[in-house]
User: What shape does this take?
Amino acid sequence: MARIVMQPSGKSVECAYGDTVLMSLEKAGFALPNNCRAGACGECKVKVLSGQFDQGMVLDMALSQEDRRQGFGLMCMAKPISDELVIEWGTEDAKPKLFPPRENALFVVVDKRVVAARVVELRLRPVGKPLRYWPGQYVTLGPGNDAIPARAFSIANAPRPDGELTLQIARSDDGPTSQWVHDTLTIGDNVKLSGPYGTFIGDPAVDTPILCLAAGTGLAPIMALAETALRRGFRKPVTLLFSARTEPDVYGHGMMAWWRTKHRNFDYKVTLTREQKDGFLQGRVNEVLPGLFPDLSKHTIFAAGSPEFVATCVNAVKALGAQDGMIYTEGFFAQQQPTVADASHLLNTAN
Assistant: This one.
C-alpha cells in the first residue's frame, strides 16, 4: 500500500497494490482530469515532486521525453513503486485547479429538442479541441453581434471523451439571446462558446451525503455534478430535489429515473409550487425539506436556480443544521457575466 500526497494541500490517499494513481484518487473522491485512461491523450498529466512510479506504456505524443525530464507523468497509467508519491495537483484547500477559459471555441449544434414548457436542450459538439471544464461550470453562447449579446448557460453533462456539451436554455420574454436559441438556432448551425467559467464545483473530495436543490434550468449544473459523482462510484447517498411550478415545467425525469434504477445511493424528488399532482410533492423547497431531511448537519448542499430560490434554499438548509462551509450555490442572474477564478486556481495547460 502506497500513499499519494497532493501538494500544495498536503492531503493524501492510499493507493492499493496494482492500482494506478488515477484510480486511487478517484476512489477517494478526487476528480483528476482524464479521458482515454490508456496513456494516449495526456489529460491526466501532472508533475511528480518526489517518489518513484512505474509509468507503464504511454505514447510520446501524450508524454514527451522533455515532459519526463521535467518530472511529469500520466496518472492513468502510473503505479507507485515507492511508499510515498508526491504530486503537484489541486489548491491549498485541495480543490482542483480550474482550466483557463477559451474564447470563441467552435461547436456544431448536433441536436435540439424541447424538454419542458419553456426549455430547449442543445447538444453541441466541438469542431476542434474539446473544451476542458469541471462539472458545475458554465459557458457563454451568442450569435456574436451587438443586437444579441452572449449569455451564460451552465453545462448540463459530465465531461465526455468526444467533448460534447449539453445546454438547457429557458425562454426569457425579455431575453434576446434565449429567444434566438429557441426561434432561430437550428441543428447543423455553427456556434461559438467561451469558457468555462464559474466555481460552482464544490469539493471533489467530499465524503458526506449530498443534497442537490434545483429550480428551472438550475437543474443543468446539478445534473452535471450528480452524473460525475455517480459515474466515479461515489457511495454516499445523493438526493436531488427539483422544484418546478407545474408538471409541464418538469424535465430530466427520464435520466433521473435511470440514475435511481442504476445507482442504489441516488434518489430524486420533484415538488410543484403551483399545482397538486399525484406522484409529486407539493410546496416550495423550504416547506417540504423539513419532512424529508430533519437534520442536514452532516450533508453537503448544492443549490442552483434564481437568486431568490437559492437564498430560500440556503435559509432552509441552515435552519436544518447545514454548515456554512458545506453549502455551495449558483444563482442565475438575467444579465450574468462570466466569473473567472483567481489566477492561482487556474490549471496550466501548456504542459
The longest strand covers residues 102-116. The chain has a mean pLDDT of 89. The chain is about 20% helix and 30% strand.
